[in-house]
Task: inverse folding
């Protein structure tokens, strides 16, 4: 093992995958956002209720 391998930090990606959940029906889908950005809140079509509804970020899934 070389000294250079020990000194390097693990590189984090700039984007992360998050789980978005509908406030109305609980429908979920995955989206990407920047790591340093605020939590996502977007309006999108919800197939369960056949209307647009608000989706909020529920949890982080993984780095992208």
Result:
């Amino acid at each position: 093992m070389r000294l250079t391998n020990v000194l390097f930090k693990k590189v984090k990606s700039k984007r992360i995958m998050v789980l978005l959940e509908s406030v109305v029906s609980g429908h979920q889908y995955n989206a990407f956002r920047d790591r340093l950005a605020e939590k996502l809140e977007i309006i999108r079509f919800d197939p369960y209720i056949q209307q647009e509804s608000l989706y909020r970020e529920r949890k982080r899934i993984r780095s992208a």
